[in-house]
Amino acid sequence: MIKGFIFDLDGVITDTAELHFLAWKALADEMGWNFDREVNEKLRGVSRLDSIGIIMDHNAVSLPEKEIVELATKKNEIYVASLNQITPEDYLPGARELLTHLRQEGFKVALGSASKNSTKVLAQLDATKYFDVIGDGNSVSKSKPAPDIFLFGAEKLELKPEECVVYEDAESGVDAAKAGGFHAVGIGPKERVGHADVRFDDMKQATLFEVKSHFKDLF
Ligand code: BG6
Ligand code: MG
After folding, report:
1. Greatest extent of the chain over all pairs of C-alpha atoms, in Å
2. What is residue 94's DSSP assignment?
3. How much is the pLDDT for 101?
4. Topology of the domain comprising 17-85
5. Where exactly are the structural domains of the chain?
6. Domain 4-14+89-218 class?
7. In this predicted structure, what is the pLDDT of residue 108?
8. Distance 159 CA to ligand 1 centre (A)
9. Is 10 marked active-site?
10. Is 29 marked active-site?
11. CA–CA distance from 107 to each of 25, 59, 118, 151 (Å)?
């Protein structure tokens, strides 16, 4: 029986990819590094330190660990400042409707995001009220594709993985959901999330009705 839902944040509830891009781009420009939207796509669902690693690999650059952490912190300061522009108008189409619907039907709901800035993003959206549990980049040490963040959410909701549906837009996020034994809903193109149990192009299509129809024996 499905009793709960666990949501990734960036790319599922709201689209922060552009703000992450602008912050990484500002850092890359300052460092004289090459960075574009194509490389930014590879950072979807990837932790902050792994992200800077991907950008440095792309530029064939290596630096001492301390300096890498300082640069990642600098990017984060730019990113956090930009979060002030997020408003309750910035849900991805369909996301607020789905969260409202889940509340009305009494499902348990958790956040399972890699971001250490999740609570700030949720507050800007006025979305905190939709979640029983917040699992974010501060909750576990192993990031996606390890299933830890979703296992954390399920445990706090007092549910088993097979009682939860996970919504994810990142390849590594779908990997994490499957590794943990969750039912995975992929949001985005086949090439990225085609390995989910069911896939939708966007959140507008991923309604409770559609998910119930897909997993009909489990509701
Ligand atoms: C994920 C994003 O949700 O969070 C990644 O998709 C990001 O792009 C990661 O790098 C970590 O976010 P933060 O806010 O902790 O730097
Ligand atoms: Mg995401």
Report:
1. 54
2. T
3. 98
4. DNA polymerase; domain 1 (1.10.150)
5. 4-14+89-218, 17-85
6. alpha beta
7. 98
8. 26
9. yes
10. no
11. 39, 45, 21, 17
